[in-house]
Structure formats: structure tokens, C-alpha cells
Design a protein that fits this description.
It is built from no helices and 33 strands. It has 4 domains: 145 residues, Immunoglobulins (Immunoglobulin-like), CATH 2.60.40.10; 85 residues, Sandwich (Immunoglobulin-like); 91 residues, Immunoglobulin-like, CATH 2.60.40; 109 residues, Sandwich (Immunoglobulin-like). Helices cover 0% and strands 39% of the residues.
Length: 472
């Protein structure tokens, strides 16, 4: 009978099974009812392919001479232990490089584990032992010899991904993805399969040939094809290819014409462009070239409207409102970049939004004056002094974000405005003549006018001073 193996392309060869005969005794040498120890039987040897599952069945029928037997008790046994037999498996020997061990056996040392299996990991001879036990006795061990060969499935080459390289610089190849279905150790054979017409490389111009990760050096620009075949000691794989695109290493520069935007009416008729974001991957200095791509139909602007079309940030003078587009290219001394385009909308005066004036909050000051009695009906009072009061128009704003011009004014001319053209300023109130037992109030309206380049707005804040004369 054959011991079965899954996924094996070999047929197990059978020799005479190992047979352990039980000794039966009643304990004192007399004949009579005999107690019998369990016996174990296995077929041996067998041959399998590397990587195939090996199934071992301790309860399978085995032919011994003219008898067909299985592990258990002799047929003439009168007295037995528990018939719940336990099958225990172990490795007596494995190949030197193998990592399989007792724990690799499925269901090992579990009651009723008559069937177990393992997967060989290297070529060589494996010897597995089995004992059968009941609750009283353990059989002598029986062994099975498994001869593992490499098999005949071809290995599979994997030359790795397609790569990019630079002439004169080493390109590292990677064939570590290659494999053998039976797990055999691989031999690697690389070759330069094709080259650009400018190349002088020969097929064997591979460094570290015979390894999974060799290298080569492109000797000119172009596409190189590298071939890999792998062997398992019996046969070679089909070739696999990786392409390597090599250039001189001079990468083209990148133009960046800046962000698109809009020019409000008060920003004038010049727009400043910004190409400082342009760069060269190789760090080479750049030459800039700006050009006018499009302008409104009524415009007469040309490239001459650039202040300096070769500058990184030139200004451009536009002539009519509308949409303009500008193109920037940069040059690294060898290659021109792809163009980058930036768009601007130049707004006319009709698009302007008027600013909003905010003169701040009203303020008031109260003071007293000392008065001295000169006669029964006459008093001499000191004047109430001048005061400095802060004015703050910084809350004024423009919807277009335009810069604002400020103007503070007062109709009577009595207070003095320190800085009439700033957002925040100070006014000085006049000296006020006091009268005994009289409170005199003065009020001034301060007007703030704010203007962008086209429109304006006004707001008014009230300032008041009270002067009271008091006697001593």
C-alpha cells in the first residue's frame, strides 16, 4: 500500500514495512489470558518533490507478508488496555539546512492523531518516527524515510521594475522577486539584451553577475533592456526583462509665473509680475523670458510694455481695462522650460467701490476754574485751560483694499488740529474764559474725509468741553 502525498509528482516506492510484534504475558510466565501492548506500522520509504505536502497515516493498512495489518493490537490478544490509542510523531533526522521540527507536524501529540503531515523546506532525507500508546503501554518506535528531490517545475525570473538612470552613474538591478515553485536555491544569469545605437556595452557588461542585485552603467543616453534568467539546478527559467531609460542628468528647469490676480482701479496702470518661484532641479542659474499672450481687443500693448522682459519680476504697463495673460519660460543654459501662464484682470474706474469713513467716538471734557471775590458783587476767575483730545479715524476702510487719504477739518477754526492728514491725530481746544458760578459749554464738530483715488466719504465726531467757575 502507498502512503499518499499531496501535490507530488513522484510515486512512493514501498519496501517491506517495519513490524513491531507485541509480547503477550500474564505477568508470571504462565499461559492464560494475555495482556497485549499496542503495535505500530508504517510504510517506508517514500519520495516526494520539494514543496509538496507529505501526509503520514499511522492507521493505514500495511501488508506484512501475507497479512494486511494496521496499528493497534494483535488479532489474538485477549486482554488490552484502553482502545483509545494515542499516536505520537517526531523527527529523528532532517537535512542540515532544514528548519522543520516536531512543531511542524500537524496535530502532533494529540489523541487520535493517526494522520499528520508536514512540508519539506529543503532537498534531502527526512526520517519521521511514530509510537502508539494506550493507557498502559507504549509501542516501540517505527520510522518512515522521506526522500525529497527538487522536482521538475521551472523557476520563474523577475528582473524587477523598469528604471530611470543617468549616464555614467551606476544603476542597481533587482531580481530578488524571482522564485522556484519547489523552493530550490536559484542561480542568476543577467545580460544586456539591447542598447541604444550610441552604446558600446556588451551583453556581459554586468557588475556582480550571478547575484540577485547586480548593476551596470549606461554609457550614453537612451533605453537599455536587461534580461534575467534563473536556474534551480535542473533547468532554466524563461527570460524576464527590465528597461532602463538613461539621460545625461540635465533635468529641464521649471517656470513659475506666480499667482493670477486682479488690479483694482486705484492700483495704477502697472502690474508687477513674479517669476521667483521658478527653479532648476540641477541648481543651474536661470535666464527669464516674459511675453504677452493676450490682451483686450482695444489694447495696443505689446512685449515692449514690459519694463524688462528678461527680469524675474518685471512690471507691465497696461493701457485699457480687461483681461491680460502673460507667459514665462526659463532657460538653464541647456534646455528651455515648458511655459507657465499667469492671468490678470485690470479693472476700470467704474468697478471702483467708495471707501467708508469712521471718525471714531464722541468725546467730552469737564473742568473747573478758581474764582476769587474782588468785592461784594465782583469775582475774578481763572481761564479754563486748553485740552488735547485724541481723534481716531483708523476704523475707516475701503472695500477694494485701496490705500486711503485722510483729511480732518473743523468749521470754526477754534480748535487746533495737530496732523489733519493722518488717520489718528490730536486737537487742542482753545482757552475758555470762566464766570463765577456759571458752567459754560463749547462743542465742535470734527469732520473726517477719506478718499481712494476716485471716490470719498465723510464722517463727523463731536468734541465738547465744559468750563465751570467756582469760588474759593
Amino acid at each position: 500500500m502507498l502512503t499518499k502525498t499531496s501535490n507530488s509528482i513522484f510515486t512512493a516506492s514501498i519496501t517491506l514495512p517495519v513490524l513491531m510484534l507485541a509480547a503477550c504475558t500474564n505477568g508470571d510466565g504462565d499461559s492464560g489470558p494475555q495482556y497485549c501492548a499496542p503495535e505500530g506500522y508504517l510504510d517506508s520509504p517514500m519520495s516526494v518533490a520539494l514543496g509538496s505536502d507529505v501526509e503520514l497515516d499511522g492507521a493505514a493498512e500495511v501488508v506484512v507478508g501475507e497479512l494486511t495489518v494496521t496499528s493497534g493490537y494483535p488479532a489474538d490478544c485477549d486482554q488490552k488496555g484502553s482502545e483509545d490509542l494515542v499516536f505520537s510523531w517526531d523527527f529523528m533526522s532532517t537535512p542540515t539546512d532544514s528548519a522543520v521540527d516536531k512543531g511542524t507536524l500537524t496535530d502532533n501529540n494529540s489523541p487520535g492523531a493517526a494522520l499528520t503531515s508536514f512540508t519539506p523546506d529543503v532537498v534531502g532525507t527526512y526520517v519521521v518516527s511514530m509510537v502508539v500508546s494506550d493507557d498502559l503501554e507504549v509501542s516501540d518506535p517505527v520510522v518512515v524515510v522521506i526522500n525529497v528531490a527538487a522536482g521538475d517545475a521551472a523557476p520563474i525570473a523577475d528582473a524587477g521594475p523598469d528604471l530611470s538612470g543617468e549616464t555614467g552613474v551606476r544603476v542597481d538591478l533587482d531580481g530578488s522577486g524571482s522564485s522556484d515553485p519547489e523552493g530550490a536555491e536559484l542561480e542568476f544569469n543577467w545580460a544586456v539584451a539591447s542598447t541604444p545605437s550610441c552604446s558600446d556595452l556588451a551583453p556581459d557588461d554586468i557588475y556582480n553577475q550571478g547575484t540577485a542585485t547586480p548593476s551596470f552603467i549606461c554609457d550614453c543616453e537612451g533605453i537599455y533592456t536587461i534580461a534575467l534568467v534563473v536556474g534551480d539546478g535542473n533547468q532554466w527559467s524563461e527570460p524576464d526583462y527590465a528597461t532602463v531609460s538613461c539621460d545625461s542628468g540635465d533635468l529641464p528647469p521649471v517656470a513659475d509665473a506666480g499667482d493670477s490676480g486682479a488690479m483694482a482701479p486705484c492700483e495704477g496702470s502697472e502690474v508687477e509680475l513674479n517669476g521667483f518661484g521658478s527653479y532648476d532641479p540641477d541648481g543651474e542659474p536661470l535666464v527669464f523670458s516674459w511675453g504677452l499672450v493676450s490682451a483686450p481687443a482695444e489694447s495696443t500693448a505689446t512685449d515692449a510694455n514690459f519694463s524688462d522682459s528678461g527680469a524675474a519680476n518685471p512690471t507691465f504697463t497696461w493701457d485699457v481695462p480687461g483681461d491680460y495673460s502673460f507667459q514665462l519660460q526659463v532657460f538653464d543654459g541647456t534646455t528651455w522650460s515648458a511655459p507657465d501662464v499667469v492671468y490678470y484682470t485690470m479693472q476700470g474706474t467704474e468697478a471702483n467701490q467708495a471707501p467708508f469713513a469712521n471718525a471714531g467716538s464722541a468725546d467730552s471734557v469737564s473742568t473747573t476754574s478758581d474764582c476769587e471775590r474782588m468785592s461784594y458783587t465782583e469775582w475774578d476767575c481763572d481761564d479754563c485751560p486748553s485740552f488735547e483730545i485724541d481723534l481716531d479715524g483708523s476704523g475707516s476702510w475701503d472695500p477694494d483694499g485701496d490705500d486711503l487719504n485722510f483729511l480732518w477739518s473743523e468749521g470754526t477754526g477754534e480748535p487746533t488740529i495737530e496732523s489733519p492728514y493722518t488717520a489718528a491725530t490730536v486737537i487742542s481746544t482753545p482757552v475758555i474764559a470762566a464766570e463765577y458760578n456759571v458752567t459754560t459749554s463749547y462743542t465742535w464738530d470734527l469732520e473726517l474725509t477719506v478718499a481712494d483715488c476716485i471716490d470719498s466719504d465723510t464722517d463727523t465726531v463731536q468734541i465738547s468741553v465744559e468750563c465751570a467757575g467756582e469760588g474759593k
